[in-house]
Every structure is written in structure tokens, then in C-alpha cells.
Amino acid sequence: MGANIRSIELIANTASGSVGPGAPEEARAILAEFGGQTNVCVPENGELSACLQAAIDRGPDLLVILAGDGTARAAAELCGMHGPRIAPLPGGTMNMLPKAVYGTTDWKAALRDTLEHGVERPLGGGIVDGRLFLVAAILGSGALLAPAREAVREGRPLIAFHRARRAWRRAFSGRLRYSLDGATRGKAEAMTFMCPIASRALKDDDQFLEAAALDPAGVAEALRIGLASVMGDWRDDPAVQSIACRQARLWASSGIPAVLDGEPARLRASVQVSWKSEVARVLAPPRAPDPKAEH
Fold this sequence. Notes:
This protein folds into two domains: about 5-115, Probable inorganic polyphosphate/atp-NAD kinase, domain 1 (Rossmann fold, 3-Layer(aba) Sandwich); about 130-275, Tumour Suppressor Smad4, CATH 2.60.200.40. Mean pLDDT is about 80; it is low at about 215-230. The protein has helices spanning about 25-35, 50-55, 70-80, 95-100, 105-115, 140-145, 145-155, 155-170, 220-230; strands spanning about 5-10, 35-40, 60-65, 85-90, 120-130, 130-135, 135-140, 175-180, 185-190, 190-195, 210-215, 240-245, 245-250, 255-260, 265, 270-285. A hairpin with a 2-residue loop joins strand 14 (about 255-260) and strand 15 (about 265). The longest helix has 14 residues, at about 155-170. With about 300 residues, the protein is α+β, with helices and mostly antiparallel strands. The strands form three sheets. The chain has a six-stranded antiparallel beta sheet with strand order 6-5-16-13-8-9. The chain has a six-stranded antiparallel beta sheet with strand order 12-11-10-7-14-15. Strands 2-1-3-4 form a four-stranded parallel beta sheet, with helices on both faces.
């Protein structure tokens, strides 16, 4: 193994979206090919957090996460820049962070490639209300529309419409007020913040977030944005305004619904969003040339 890896802890959450019951044994077989000291933890219901903390406490050279985006985010928070390096493999339903780090390859190929050719690099992230997100955050009524967006992605437009209408009725009272990098306040139904590693508009080494204000007038426009996010680029929608920023303040009349890296959350009525260039260390194969850098 490269990158001075002598000990590996691997968390395989078989209850996660795309981790099958045979994944732990497949992972053990792959790790055995490379030697070194390895341990595979398969948590039972309710044991995931304890399993993750125990793995980190053993101080491995590499912590491999074969689970969902929420577990990868928790691992990054716990490891930070001074703890074990992490390898967030695609084991969840959305796999937002693994796709950003490893592309669309399956977890077995990503693991082998990382153990053979992996290099360490810092991973940046956003902080909102003291919580970390590594890929994207949606704040406001747009967070309630996430199930409708998934129905659009799955090609079920009627279900998408009914989910969007139900979410619109549940939307919290009042629009968001926001200020980006101290500029004049604006209003929107929802705000999204994307990290450079996942943004089509930013280069991977940019040191700010892509912020977008979404202000659809109703269910139809909300669905139009959701469809654009699946079929093309939602930034082209007239109800979306996108800009780069390092800090943002958001206000609402009550608690703000949110989705952080695909996980639902409830935030306070006044929050700050900021970019942090180094939140954890990842191990991954060398990056291909960033196609966004050509634009």
C-alpha cells in the first residue's frame, strides 16, 4: 500500500442505501490483498456512531467509510485535519461526496485504486449553524422539495407534482432574507450553497462557495427548477440567481428547514454560512485535470 498506510479501519453500514450484505466480506478480501493491519466494523442498528468513534480512537492511518453521506460527514467532523485520513466510498443512496471525490466508479474499484495510488489532499467544506456540509446545503422551502426532486430524477412526474404541492403547503411562513459577503439584503424562497468540489461553476481549488437564490413563484416554477437540475443546468432558470461568496447571513420568521449533504435538518431562524478551506484530509487517486478550469 502507498501513502504510508499501515493500519486501516473500515466502517461498512449494511443498512445504508447501496451496501449489500456481502460488502463486508468483499471489503475484507480487498484489504487482505494489500496487507497491513485492518479491521472491518459492521454496526448493528443504533451502533453506527459508537462504531465510528471507536474506529477513530484506534488511530488508524486510514478510515474507510462505506456508508451514506451523513456518515462521511460525521467522520470528517470527528477526524478533522489532525485525525485519520478518510476515504468516503459510495455506499449510500445519493453518494454526493463519493461522486465528487471518486467520480462514478463503484466502491470496490475506488478502494483498490485508493490503496494503490491514493494521495492525501485537504477537503474543504461549508459551515452552517455550527454544522458541516461537504457538498451542498439547501435552506428554506427548497429543502422541503427534495422528495419531489428525487421523483423527477426517477422519471415520475405525477408523483413529483403531488410531492411538490404537499411540500409547498408545508413551507415555513415567510421568505428567507439573506446577505452575501455583507452585501445588500435580498429575499428568496430558498438558498443553496455548493462547495467547489461539487459545483459546475467553480474550479475545485476555488476558496469560496457557490450561492444561489431560488425564488419560484409557485409549484410549477419549483418543479421547473427541479427538472432543470436533472436534465440540464438549474442556473439557467430565470428564477435562480447564482453568485460566489465566502460568508452569508440568513434570517427567517421561524426555524429554517434544511438539507445538508442529503440529510434533513432544522436550523435556527438566524444562521451564518461560511466556507472553510480545510476540514479533513481525504485519500484518493490523483485528480484528473479539472474540466472547469478551462472555462
